[in-house]
Amino acid sequence: MGENMNNLMKYVKTISRCFTLYREDELKINELSGYQHPYLRRICENPGISQDQLAKRLHVNKSNVARQLALLEQNGFIVRKESAKDKRQLEVYPLEKGMEIYPIILEVIKDWNDELLAGFSIEERQQLANMLQRLMSKALTLTGSQESEDAICEKSGII
After folding, report:
1. pTM of the full predicted structure?
2. Residue 7: domain span
3. Number of C-beta neighbours around residue 23 at 10 A
4. 156 within some domain
5. In this structure, is residue 151 part of a structural domain?
6. Domain holding 102: CATH number?
7. Is residue 69 part of a domain?
8. Of 26, 62, 86, 100, which is most buried by a Cβ count within 10 Å?
9. How far apart are alpha carbons 75 and 61 in whole angstroms?
């Protein structure tokens, strides 16, 4: 049992990396990388979100956000505009191409969750979700991160 507990983060990290590879494979025909889907998803769900808000919601540093947004903009998924409220802020909006792929992103996430959780009972799924939410809350506390509206995964699945 002790060895399994020592490997807990290894399991979480491996699942996360596999999800990235899965997204990469599923979304490649749409010119979207496995790393870009969380950015585009949040932008489609929150048009006009600032780059700073995006960094906080995704728990990544601002330079990563800037890099990924530059690629999304270059590929015609989004546009960045100067904020009317604060000229130092850039707001991010989805373009038509981004909005068209948004339902595909949601379907890829659903398919991943369905496949990953196949064979788990409803009770086991709920227990797993509850335990992962507790771990995530503790991780956010340990890192001093603010919990955002989507920091606690959607109740129905994993982000």
Report:
1. 0.81
2. 2-143
3. 21
4. no
5. no
6. 1.10.10.10
7. yes
8. 26
9. 22
Q: Which single residue is written with the structure tokens 């506390």? A: 141
Work out the burial of residue 125: count CB atoms within 10 Å of its CB; fewer than 13 is exposed, 13-18 middle, 19 or more buried: middle
Binning pLDDT at 50, 70 and 90, where does residue 110 land?
Answer: very high
Q: Across the strands, what pairs with 80?
A: 92
Long-range contacts of 49-58, Cβ-Cβ distance < 8 Å, separation of 24 or more: 49/91, 49/92, 50/83, 50/89, 50/90, 50/91, 50/92, 51/80, 51/89, 51/90, 51/92, 52/89, 54/92, 56/145, 56/146, 56/148, 57/148, 57/149, 57/150, 57/151
Helix pair 8-27, 96-117: axis angle to 10 deg:
130
Is pLDDT at 6 greater than 80 in this prediction?
no
User: How many residues belong to the chain?
Assistant: 159
